[in-house]
Amino acid sequence: MSHPVDLVRLDQINVQFGHNHVLQDVNLTLHKDCITTLIGPNGAGKTTLVRIVLGLIRPTRGNVWLQPNLRVGYMPQKLHIDRTFPLTVKRFLQTTRVKDASQMQTALDDVRAGHLMNHSIHDLSGGETQRVMLARALLREPELLVLDEPVQGVDINGQVELYDLIARIRKQRRCGVLMISHDLHLVMSSTDHVVCLNHHICCSGHPEHVSNDPSFIELFGKQGAASMALYNHRHNHNHDTHGDVIADHPHPEEAQRALHKEAHNKECNH
Ligand SMILES: Nc1ncnc2c1ncn2[C@@H]1O[C@H](COP(=O)(O)OP(=O)(O)OP(=O)(O)O)[C@@H](O)[C@H]1O
């Protein structure tokens, strides 16, 4: 089992805006080749935590360590470009330091948007816009990719595709990924590590472990938590013609327990 490579270490991070204590004693380590997803209710401090990682704000208290010269690719929540400002995808990608056409084409191909190079940025669908923003973040050849709600404004099929794409990019590039998500169902299959944040870290770990954690259930309600547990239920037992579980196969609960154990061992592929 190889040792995980740390990209970012946050130690006892506190952030206060006036009297608003937004982050309290947050410890978080981001690893190479590991997708970490931040989930939590509105106003929980997720974007604030991401901004700490990006160095956009300083914590009121606590330490931030980044691997020296860490290359970070950032995909913001939304693109704010005036519709009256004519801008092609190519020109948008050129707003990075990269001007090389083949590099831009590769980044677009990697997010399955190779055909959009000369399209106007204003005419793209929600899913296409997110892909182009992802391509722009990839142009930095990031060792850490930071994605703030990457599937916002994308229809449900597009959301599944985007999460698959992110998982594939991680596999290809072996970068670390930090993303914020509200998609309690969808995120489960494409993340290694979930951090449930509500000003402090309520619970964290492998998605299947977190979905059964009492503090997670308290935060998202039984229904939300149960739907995720259901989503994660892999059908690793057989039924007879009446629908009963066949005895010589593991009972679902036993199988689920075994799965948790296996999942703990496999977290972050290490
Ligand atoms: N620069 C700032 N100055 C003052 N207050 C801020 C600032 N940035 C964020 N806040 C406050 O901090 C709290 C957390 O905001 P943040 O955007 O981190 O939450 P979030 O979990 O990302 O929310 P959402 O899911 O709604 O995007 C909010 O109450 C917000 O108003």
Please, could you describe this protein's structure?
This protein has 8 helices and 9 strands. The protein is α/β, with parallel strands linked by helices and 270 residues long. The strands form 2 sheets. It has a 6-stranded mixed sheet, with helices on both faces. A hairpin with a 2-residue loop joins strand 1 and strand 2. Helix 3 packs across helix 4. Bound molecules: adenosine-5'-triphosphate. The site of adenosine-5'-triphosphate (ATP) has 11 residues, from strand 2 and helix 1. Adenosine-5'-triphosphate (ATP) binds next to strand 2 and helix 1.
Q: Descriptors for this entry?
A:
globular, 34% helix, alpha/beta, six-stranded mixed β-sheet, Metal_Ion_Import_ABC, 2 domains, zinc, binds adenosine-5'-triphosphate, Rossmann fold, 23% strand, membrane, cell inner membrane, 270 residues, three-stranded antiparallel β-sheet
